[in-house]
Records
---
Amino acid sequence: MLSLKDREWKPFSVIDIFDEVERGKRLKKNDHVEGKRPYVSSSAKNNGVDQFIGNTEKVRTFKNCLSLANSGSVGACFYEPFEFVASDHITHLQRAGTSQYIYLFMATTISRLSEKYDFNREINDYRISREKIMLPVTDLGEPDYQFMEEYMKALILKKRKQYQCYVEDKIARICGGGPMNYWMMWVELKILIGNLFLSYHYLQDWSQEKAKVLITYHNQVREYRISVQQIEIMVLFVM
């Protein structure tokens, strides 16, 4: 496993690292239209996804970038691989030719901004234009993007192996070593994969059904059936 401790680090201006630094657009709660597109705001959970909407006009959409919370959970930063609608409480950061692994590495570094900002001191456009982040550098003093990518690939592979063992153990415990042919309680599923991103939007189109699951979505309990294989895929996908 590559080490962060034996690397040289230097500060870089946010606006020098990213080609695009743009704030989202305000969309009043009453103007939200029900839909399936993620609406990213200033939450520190679930990649900042606050809800799902269908608005297509007077909104700003982005994809394959970082989202940085300006207010609320100030400093929370996530890699967003999917297309989303950005609220005015976040700033999107994008750099051409950047892989998901580099974005994931930089998201962790940028999240350190939460140490100097809070609810009463938000990250406005002026402050982000003057902000700097620490990155590992090459012998020439340039950001070492190759190291960032290799480090994150190795870390994700390590985590996947850990979770695969964890999932296999849980499946064996729940299924008793045989096929899953009985009802699974919600609490057991929550123990199995954690309260990650289960929602109506992710489960409604699944066709192979084996286990019944109670999912709480917007305070409404819905019933679904999902297979053990799909549960395992969900865990590995999240990592």
---
Amino acid sequence: AQIDLQKAEELEFVIKIIFGKALVEPHYCETYADMVFALRTRYPEFPAENEGEKPHSFTRVLLNTVQNEFESLPTTFEPTDEDRKKYESTEDLNLEMKKRKGKMLANMKFIGNLFLRQLLAVKVIGQVVHDLIGIKQGENPLPEEHMIECVCELLQAIGYTLDETQQGESLMNSFAARLKDLSGVRNNGKHAYSKRIQFQIDGLLDLRKAKWMKKLFKEQAKTKTAVREEAEREQRTHGRTPGPDNMFSVQTVGVRPAYMDEISAAKKRTKQVDAGASKPKFDKQYVKKICQYYGEDQQGDTLQEDWSKAQPTKEETKQGLEWLLETGFDDPNKQDVTAQVMVELVRRRLIPWDMLKDSLTNSLASLPDMKMDTPTADVFVHSLFARLLMLGDGFNVVVLKALQTFVSSDDNKKLGWSVMVGIMKRLKSEKANEIVQKALQKSEFISVAATAKGCTAQEAKKQLESS
């Protein structure tokens, strides 16, 4: 059907309609996900309605809808008193509970299909799974059974594709380990979860071991002639009478649609042609554009291609880094995505660590003044250093010299300590507990904190740990 959307609100309305249809018709989830993909192709972005506002991207509208639908999932499937009054018969009540559960599982299946079409990033999947079965504190630290079912449904829908990348495989390893732990949890000597849930977890883990190859029951509605011909063909091919295995076919589940590969190949060919024709001008507008693109799709390979396509010289790379820092410090709405872009560029060695250290040293010298104009300027520093530390073994301590230089000035010590605490809090908010411990073991990191606080390294470490 032909639709003409003028505003982001109209796009959000259409996506909600598609979402609603997908939840009540889960057997058409793939088709509805294709519809959403087609919408992104046609409406990647809407211009800002008012001057000074940022454009409304398709990805942001979709993420808001996904988040709202996910947060509306029921926390339990125990009927409430209101449900019992509304549905007088037990049969009607059970049917309603079954419908709700079906919509919940359809939600997971639909989210999975959106991921397969690169409409949702790996980070979103990680957050969804964490919210469902992540380790929590409180009276009920264990997830409800329906939350485990949700995760199994989601991972079966995307497992193969998730395992294809290093980041995805790492996440999948964590998910599998968590599910295995939950399967074995006991309360008072008895399994905390029903046999059905244990079998569902085992089934998913076995499916992964089998490289996501799943047996499917073949369609059996055939004419007598077709059955006879197939039997004869099987005998000729295999030299035996068809057995039970011939009733099944094997299919790899969680694979991206074939047309996604075709689109990727076409884009690659286009880029090669463009690269051969002319390189784009490496200016502030170009850097802002590729930064925006990364914020929308979170594709590091695309970021690398776009950055490298312009073939920036060393001086241009330094200038590009300055533009990124300027955006990060000045625009509160772009602080986190700018930090992500910078870390990704450093990780892919497109920006050298020494260059980052030098540019940060110059920028941090003006941090007190920048906070006068943009009070949240230091939040960008929290985000940037937290994400750099999250590179783990890929982190280069040389960049900490920028912080050390900053806190060495008496005028900056108070703000410097606040920055160090902010970095630790950001790491903890990202649930990066292992990285927190590694940061606390880095003598260079603790030295910066001790200088800022004016205390011993041991005392600074203790205070950071409890911050």
---
Amino acid sequence: MNNRFSDVLHQKADLINAYLDSKVSQKDNLQGIVYEAMRYSLLAGGKRIRPVLALAAGQVLGEQEARILPFACAIEMIHTYSLIHDDLPAMDDDDYRRGRYSCHKKFGEATAILAGDALLTMAFEIAAEGALALEDPKRGLRAIRHIALSAGTEGMIGGQIVDLDAETRAISESELRYLCERKTGALLRAPVLAAAAVAGAEETRSAALLLEYADTIGLAFQIKDDILDVEGDISVLGKATGSDAKDGKTTFVTLYGIQRSKTLLE
């Protein structure tokens, strides 16, 4: 990564982190524990790829950064809620996330579930605020619809249910790609779709090219994740490895082998 790109990425991440921090500040002592759990997971680090992608797409499409920011951060909240729930014993049963205890190991399962629910709910609250601030709120409503579809049964959750099914039987290559497009890819398409909606540029060639780029990133993320589950180190990744093999899941590695998976990644 060249220094200029790295500097821009860090600047955008700092902006996003400051916005997220402001939204999950504790409001009431009676609610303190759920805010603590929300902050624990939301502000635990990470590259902020999804919100940075939204801001970058907005810039390409000629939209002001401040108008995109609420939608960008809403997507990051949804991503974080999905990680909290993904780590639960009923799902992937992972004890570690980003180098420390996962939310349910730190706060208990009930609080972790509520923290995830609260982040999902707050995501649409801040996206709605972003829509109301636009001269044409309908653009914001379209952005919210794109985000909802990307997070729901047509997107991430649809991919998650196929992922659970992959624990009970071998799935085909087409099913694996379906899983990847939704479980991982949907929340990488959402930033582009939301930014294009806010910019009024959904039907433009630029938006189509940005979506192709997002799809490529989504596929690469999933292949890389499958490889790291075999070859990765918990001390580097910050989460447990070997879970796919333990659960008997079909992955790019089990379908193609390590070497071909690495070739696909390149």
